[in-house]
Amino acid sequence: MTEALARSPQIDHQRATFPDGLALDSGAVIAPLSVAYRSYGKLNAQRSNAILVCHALTGDQYVAEPHPITGKPGWWEAVVGPGKPVDTDRFFVICANVLGGCMGSSGPAEPMPQAAPTPGASRPYGTDFPSITIRDMVRAQKLLVDHLGIPRLLAVVGGSMGGMQVLEWAATYPEMVVAAAPIACAAYHSAQNIAFHEVGRAAIHGDPDWVGGRYWEDGRIPAKGLSVARMVAHITYLSEAALGRKFGRRLRGASALTFLEDVFEVESYLRHQGSTFVTRFDANSYLTITRAMDYFDMASEHGGDLPAAFRGTSTRFLVASFSSDWLFPTEESRALVRALNAAAANTSFVEIATDKGHDAFLLDEPVFHRALGGFLRGAAERVGV
Amino acid sequence: MTEALARSPQIDHQRATFPDGLALDSGAVIAPLSVAYRSYGKLNAQRSNAILVCHALTGDQYVAEPHPITGKPGWWEAVVGPGKPVDTDRFFVICANVLGGCMGSSGPAEPMPQAAPTPGASRPYGTDFPSITIRDMVRAQKLLVDHLGIPRLLAVVGGSMGGMQVLEWAATYPEMVVAAAPIACAAYHSAQNIAFHEVGRAAIHGDPDWVGGRYWEDGRIPAKGLSVARMVAHITYLSEAALGRKFGRRLRGASALTFLEDVFEVESYLRHQGSTFVTRFDANSYLTITRAMDYFDMASEHGGDLPAAFRGTSTRFLVASFSSDWLFPTEESRALVRALNAAAANTSFVEIATDKGHDAFLLDEPVFHRALGGFLRGAAERVGV
Description:
Catalytic activity (chains A, B): L-homoserine + acetyl-CoA = O-acetyl-L-homoserine + CoA
Order of helices and strands of chain A: EEEEEEEEEHEHEHHHHHHEHEH
Strand content of chain A: 15-25%
Oligomer: homodimer
CATH topology of the largest domain in chain A: Rossmann fold
Largest interface: A-B, 52 and 52 residues
Shape of chain A: globular
Distance between the termini of chain A: 30 Å
Function (chains A, B): Transfers an acetyl group from acetyl-CoA to L-homoserine, forming acetyl-L-homoserine.
Strand order of the largest sheet of chain A: 1-2-5-9-6-10-11-12-13
Number of domains of chain A: 2
CATH superfamily of the largest domain in chain A: Alpha/Beta hydrolase fold, catalytic domain
Organism (chains A, B): Falsiroseomonas oleicola
Keywords (chains A, B): Acyltransferase, Amino-acid biosynthesis, Cytoplasm, Methionine biosynthesis, Transferase
CATH architecture of the largest domain in chain A: 3-Layer(aba) Sandwich
Active site (chains A, B): 160 (nucleophile), 325, 358
Structural class of chain A: alpha/beta
Number of strands of chain A: 13
């Protein structure tokens, strides 16, 4: 394997490349495989203080530093950093761009390998990128962790789709995971969540600039469709109370009866969310990753028996949910906790009272931060870190 | 005024036409004004047994008979008919297509009056149709009720946007409304609901076949955008439990790993909802009516004082909500009830326990049907019908 700062569109991402590639759940093989990643803190001499952070649908590896495209702070700076719950003074923190993503890991936006490479003839995978699962994402991360010479992760931590990856890590490589914190997630994607994803996909498919997925051919992007997909998803990340508190029915102009577009502040906010998203995210990546989330159903991967995914595990779990999260309601975390209990796993559960909705896992939630910080310190003490 | 079976696209609708038109909240005037409607049952000699049913966003006047485009049963046959809660053996039931609708009432799809009419040069209003409010819809219905020679309505009844009209009827023409049943609604449209509407509008605006609203010029329709709008709205009409029970994660093919489009049944259901909707609904109508719902805020119409809208009323109210309705949560109905109580209005309130979501008001809900039927019989006895 080779490691280099390789060029992906616009930015150099730090990444590891695996020429032998990865065999996927679908039977397809991605070769070579690239895994882009960032790390923070120092790996100790025993290589025992590594924490893997898994990102959500539209996140990436830039957890605790400015984003190279938007210039905004890293997406989890509230949680990851010196003295933070995921303490980079004490832990070596890794985050990889997911397989299928668009920030340097193998995905629809990356160049497709050619049987007989011709200079200048390279083109992205686009819709020829195979369908992937959450477990495929985790297998790619496993290659990276091995490559970094880390025999066992002190913890795997993530929210939303990141939490799905945490669960797959614990189920697939239990001996490698001392502690696992699946946050604001569930052991399967619900019909309602699949339905919201399908709205976003229909919007992208319906955009003529998607060009059947080959928009890269003449430099177009399906900006309108991708923007609508982001808008609807964004609503599901917030609670009704959060939207009401943030915007209520506040008008942008003097009177509703001016009857212009963007009458209400909440509308211009949403449009802004949509239009900025398209500058940093690839539409085919969005299609690929939403589909991977929809496939996610750990019970069905284990013959319909969710506890079987975790039976005999020595991993410690912290399951965390947020009371106003209607995308991954607390009830789904409780079902996960029941399955972990049925598997006799060492499990803590905390429901954080908040009206901020699903996005709360990214925000300033001191009770959550204390719970996560305490859980990770406990895991560290257990293994003498 | 004249009344005729006038031709609108495809179908003859029964309608009343008012040459003097209607002055709108925006200051614009629609003239002539057409109000398409249907009626069921017989008006009694005292003209005292009339019940006005108000329809929701995508409903129409075909309440209790097959729909002239889809051939499906009327949208409220569970509630309106012989021996039903709104009993057509006893009551004269009227339903008008809302102002701004696309089933024969004045709206974006109807021909725009011309200063100097040229034969063959007629074109629809399209986006030249003025912006309207829920109160404008009610004023148009008032013209129809006067035209039919009905001095006072025994009741005004409706769910969702229909419930908003019920509230405006009671506030604007209190002397004409013996009983009012606002169902599955609220006294204002929330930030979350505005946000979902804006997603639908963005999808329509982004469809190149919308052509800036002039799609009628060459016979196109923005089918993809309108379909996406319907898909996202449809999710909000159902509860997570209803979607889970109806579809769960059931696959359409043998295995998710076939990785085709429409992998899950819920996706093909939603796509079907979207694609059939575009055969019966006009995109500019959808834009106009969703905007009218977003403007709806009865408190702000009364100086921020919601009880002021109803103070001194002798109308009896039945407010009904459904426990799993997250589009118009019970809490918003309770806020309405508190305002009615503060106005000393005669008010009953019932929350129906159901897991069917917002759509429950259209479905087989015996407890709701008994409450509504009893309320209407009580009102009828009160005025000697």
